Amino acid sequence: MEKGIKTYGMVGIGALLHFLVDGLCICSLYLMVSPFNASQFVSYFVLYNVLAFLTQPLTGYLVDRLEHKHWILLASMLLLTLAAGFTTISQNGLSSMNAIAISVLLGIGNSLFHVWGGQQVAVQTGNDIRSLGVFVSTGALGLAVGAVFFSWWMLYCFLLAACLLSIWAIQILLRPLPVRDGTVYFQGGGADKRLFSVLIIVVMAVVALRAWLSEDVTADIERTQAMVLLLGLTAMLGKVFGGFLCKWIGLLWAVILMVVGTVASLLSPLSSLLLPLIALFLVNCTMPVTLWLANVLLPQREGLAFGLLAAALMPGYLLTDFTLVTFLVPLVCTIIIELGVLFFLRERRAKVLWASVAINVITNLPLNWLVFSEWIFDLTTLLLAEIIIVIIEALWYFCFVRRWKQAFVYGLLCNTISFLVGMLFILVYYIVIV
User: What is the distance of C-alpha 132 from the center of its chain?
Assistant: First the structure.
């Protein structure tokens, strides 16, 4: 009985923390910019989101490797507290360095919390799909509440509540920290592992598609304060309901119902505000399904699984602003070039090759979005972005090859060659065609 209370108490506290952390982050960003130049908000918001989403595979890998998981939560709360402090200091004047510092602290703090919470909930509940849905659901409402009601009292109340709940989680629910209790995974040999590597890419693609659909189905709705709250609440309820629906009628039938319902609401000839809300609800019902599948495909790597799916959200959101071809052409070319470089380096391991595909999806789409949005406007800025990507990919490859020198060589050569080929293509295009 006590074990059950601790287990599902962790789910409840994790869900509350998720609401508070996401609400705190968006509240801090709005407070940082609102007294000054509002046009600056987009650049800082992009920086925050890139760090909050795209670093989660790395922070997820860290939380899986770390023996004492509570340090991740403590680090997250420390970074968020520092961000709130910098936001307060900036009331009388916001410098670019302060804004960047706040965005970085919020992004990394948010990233650490999410992988910690996703890993803990999956481990303590045995990958229970209902618990996964409850944990991930509250972030959407937290973002909506933080965006609509942002204020100094909300920032401090949310931060205080998050810190107190974190202490409760560490001192009561996580003593001693559980290893893995009751989680059931498929087991298999080398062939199955290769298949699982392909399947995790498919799951990530589904997550990106879901993110795009979530934005697309509500694109024509006017974002009044009441509507922002309604959309956040709808998304939250969908994530909760999806997990319970899978338990009630089975995973297969639940997914069929979600897909059929979504398609029917999108293709309906009727004109009603209710239809996009229904589509948004059903699309979000799939959230616990993809997270449960990722945990199955990556046994004992729940933090990495959560991080990969979080990173896959970013490409889906970015696709809402541009045509699919705009992103797919450079992405596919980059993947082909970098796979060719790895083959030239005599790399034949399937996990490394699929890792190359995954990291290119994660990094190439945001980079192209920044270029097409003219946030990257000169060669110097582009080179700086490429250097950051080289570092990220080197860290990523190290997770698979386990040798720093080899990982750095892979990251450096793959990106350098793909960058130079891209520049050559642009040069030929302007000389021959333009």
Answer: 15
